[in-house]
Amino acid sequence: MMTQNKYGAVIIGGGASGLMCAAAAKSKNKNLSVAIIEKNDRTGKKLLSTGNGRCNLTNKEISSEKYRGTFCKGADKIFSKYTADCITEIFKNLGLLTYSDSEGRYYPVCKQASAVLDVLRFACERLGVDIFCGECVKSVGRKNGKFYVNTENMKLSSDKLVIACGSKSAPKLGGTAAAVDYLKNFGHSVIPFSPALCPVKVSSDLLKSLKGIRITGKATLLDKNGSAVKSESGEIQFTDTSLSGICIFNLSLYNQKDCTISLNLLPDYSYKELFSLISRQRLLFGDFTADNLFTGIFQKRIGQALFKLCGIRDFSKKCSSLSDGEIKALCSAVQNMNFKTDENSDFSRSQCLLGGAAGNQIDENTMESKIVKGLYICGEAVDICGECGGYNLHFAFSSGHLAGEKL
What we know:
Mean pLDDT: 93
Number of helices: 12
Largest sheet: 7 strands, mixed
Distance between the termini: 30 Å
Number of strands: 22
Low-confidence stretches: none
Radius of gyration: 25 Å
Helix content: 25-40%
Shape: elongated
Strand content: 25-35%
């Protein structure tokens, strides 16, 4: 016999935004009956994986400038209310202590993502939220002013419905495109999901020789006209098909096919200082073969790749025989190691996605749909994606809390 239940609000998705939404709704109105439908066997699976298991839950530098997507303009108003201090205070009231690091990222004092999930779960349990795990939604609809949600085992009806079921990112943790299907059924315009915060595929003959190497430097995304779009500094990782690392992830938000990622492998050196440094290396290692020129600066494979970029393929000649012109070319290669971009990596390697509900159809004052009264959309189901550093969890928590207070 299929269970039938009536609620004031049903939330599809038991992730960061869904749990926060439920807790906020019950805190605001204890008489509101709230249910969460979660397809996984437990809530918050993706939340547990964030921040390398430590959960980077917000950032001091919260601003819509750190985001892309059609809801960025709407997010401005939300962020004016939900600052980093506001989010950390909300969590403090739930029992979680946080701290910020030197880059403005906030983490739990205990450095465990499970603590963030636990305080949200405990709040929902304490406030009387019904959570149904392992329930895949088969259909959603609206009739006579009521919403209907059907799973294999349950039929639920509600006055309000919240779409908080995320996106296709991290499919191994349960990411799907279900939110898009639900929204389309309600007549919403949706932006197709596309991978973001992920490695960027690039075209280069050098990649195979550099596979597995990590180096700290500055990466700049250049558009088709060679103009700088965005620069990021940090660790850069080479794979056999792509560039990776947090700084590359942030560039992926702005990447389009046929852009260029230009790497400066020694960004703290001016061209003049670099020429002096490499000239000194030429003297120091004069009797050694050319592929030893960058000893003490780069891994040998990086040095060999720089030589190839400059058209110097005879590694048997001695460092002392390198001309000033060749040293200048090598200096330019160090400061401008260029890779033509292709598409971003696939959904399985993306931390977050662009795409979801079109921003102009969501009321930024409530997170309620402008198309269907009583329908709310929050978290990754909205077309907005932030850079690495706690920005996406901040939006998940703030949009979920706002929707919950307005239910």
